[in-house]
Amino acid sequence: MLTGLQPAVVLVNALDLIGTFVFAISGAALGVQRRMDLFGVLVLAFVTAVSGGILRDVLIGALPPASVASWHNLALALVAGLLVFQFHPLLGRLRHPVQFFDAAGLGVFAVAGTQKALAHGINWPMAAVLGMISGIGGGMARDVLTAEVPTVLVANIYALAALAGAMAVVAGYQFGWPPTPAALAGVALCVFLRLMALYRGWKLPVAGPKGG
Amino acid sequence: MLTGLQPAVVLVNALDLIGTFVFAISGAALGVQRRMDLFGVLVLAFVTAVSGGILRDVLIGALPPASVASWHNLALALVAGLLVFQFHPLLGRLRHPVQFFDAAGLGVFAVAGTQKALAHGINWPMAAVLGMISGIGGGMARDVLTAEVPTVLVANIYALAALAGAMAVVAGYQFGWPPTPAALAGVALCVFLRLMALYRGWKLPVAGPKGG
Amino acid sequence: MLTGLQPAVVLVNALDLIGTFVFAISGAALGVQRRMDLFGVLVLAFVTAVSGGILRDVLIGALPPASVASWHNLALALVAGLLVFQFHPLLGRLRHPVQFFDAAGLGVFAVAGTQKALAHGINWPMAAVLGMISGIGGGMARDVLTAEVPTVLVANIYALAALAGAMAVVAGYQFGWPPTPAALAGVALCVFLRLMALYRGWKLPVAGPKGG
For residue B210, is it within any domain? Predict the structure, then answer.
């Protein structure tokens, strides 16, 4: 019975690893840009990759968090950080793929976070919020540690894309859809919105006089 | 037997809702001022309203935190954020009422946080600290997310007012006073100290040469 | 049987108190430097002294954290903060002893944090990370609250010294060494690396063109 799900589970796990890896890259890249030493770069890679999931797990009481109970995400983040430290000049050329994988990681984390929150009995509005937090928490921790205004709060449709992905999972849960298509739809929705914001300039209104 | 307490419980609950609402307004107002988009404003409203209580609940091990286990505070914060986004020019004119409600929210959160910590068996000095954290945590999270020095650390008698309110609850607990008058005294003490700081310039000493 | 350990336990407890005290001093000193009032200084002293241990305890699910379950660390941090507030001009003259005790505190917290994480069944790579977090968390919280880039991410061999101390404990655990010599070796290793960084300029490589 589970055999039918296996390809999808493999897919989600693969995307989860990709998400961890890409977020670690984004943290390490900021560390290199700020001229941190190797160790600071690795710390920032790890923090960016796992903070979202850790915050979610603390808030639903799933302690110790998954990224603490296992060392896999640590290993993956260290590999990503070492690669960035060594080959960072390449990152400029890889901007488009990195942005795509970042959007994919955002969607995967948001979807997986929502599923985990629902599985722990959290009400659906807060489950969607926790899914969003899973997606954006790593970037927020990265920005707070480097004393920047978190980009999730100023970037065009970043947190909102994560929330949209989370809402797809919640809708599927409410209406009894099979979980795998709902999860894939959530990831796709998040990636779509994020890429539209990046390449078509979609954005939300800002309050106040337009002149700024 | 509980009937006698009911008016007081209703009062405390009403004040708790007011506190959540007012703190959400203060977060949303900062978001508008920083020209964040609608979504960033709503996130900041929610974070400001619930971070203090969430931090307290994590630290006493009451997981998931009350603001995660229920969606009511989320809804209230979103309404407050939408109102600020739409009607923010009014906020300048409402400065005095907002400051009063902010002081009231601070006191209510400090008192309720202390009561919850004591009920979870925390020793009284740390229960008072946790009450203070409940009151000031939202403002601290708001300031950290927007890369400001938390005003609770520099404002005249802000955290101290929260601590004073918390200490009133602790004193009542130690000396066996009935909880409701102790709670109301704590809120009143916090509001009084905060308003004295705002309108009479009460403040604590600063170390070092006066010339600065 | 435990009698043989008693001197070592007393030593570790004494070092733990020294670590709390010294970290509180470093937080209070930054508060004075930023011209915070007495209360802000005390808050910063407490936050710096206990945040690392609290973060560790939350992440391993040991709730409420030790610094919440008891009021001893609070009292110690307040005493340290009051002393700094009163006698801060002395701090400049005491720079070398303070740096030494800070390194000792870092090592003690890293070692004790690793031991606690291992005792809670955490895998050894993450136990070492949690030990490091116990050591550096207080300084990170201090810097985030004052809107600085955390020095642990830019200072020469600070977090790395903590991690080295933690790894000594992990090595002892893996190879079945008696815990007390492993702990003392960890503290000594951390102090040695930190002092080499401070007085001999040991540092890690930075990525990118040397010209900066």
Answer: no
**Which of C56, C58, C122, C126 should one mutate to test binding to chain A, selecting the residue with the greatest count of A CBs within 10 A?**
C126
Q: Which of B52, B80, B54 is nearest to B67 (CA)?
A: B54
Asked whether residue B156 is domain-assigned, the answer is yes
Q: How far is C57 from chain A (nearest CA, A)?
A: 10
What's chain B's Rg over C-alpha atoms?
17
Examine residue C210 and state whether it is found in any structural domain, yes or no: no
CA C173 to chain centre: 21
Question: In this predicted structure, what is the pLDDT of residue C122?
Answer: 95
Residue with tokens 């539209």: A196
Has residue C209 got a pLDDT over 90? Answer: no
Question: Is it the case that residue C7 has pLDDT exceeding 60?
Answer: no
What distance in Å separates the CA atoms of residue B44 and residue B40, rounded to the nearest whole number?
6
Residues of C in contact with B144 (CB under 8 A): 144-145, 147
Q: Is C210 helix (H, G, I), strand (E, B) or coil?
A: coil
Closest CA to B183 of B2, B4, B16, B1: B16
Is the CB of B74 less than 8 angstroms away from the CB of A125?
A: yes
Q: pLDDT tens digit string along C114-132?
A: 999 999 999 999 999 999 9
Cβ atoms within 10 Å of B76's Cβ, excluding its own: 19
3-class secondary structure for chain A? CHHHHHHHHHHHHHHHHHHHHHHHHHHHHHHHHCCCEHHHHHHHHHHHHHHHHHHHHHHCCCCCCHHHHCCHHHHHHHHHHHHHHHHCHHHHHCHHHHHHHHHHHHHHHHHHHHHHHHHCCCCHHHHHHHHHHHHHHHHHHHHHHCCCCCHHHHCCCCHHHHHHHHHHHHHHHHHCCCHHHHHHHHHHHHHHHHHHHHHHCCCCCECCCCCC
The boundaries of the domain holding residue C101 are 2-200
Whether residue C209 is contained in a domain is answered as: no
Q: How many domains does chain C have?
A: 1
H or E stretch at B183: helix B179-200
Interface test with C, best of A25, A36, A39 (most C CBs within 10 A): A39
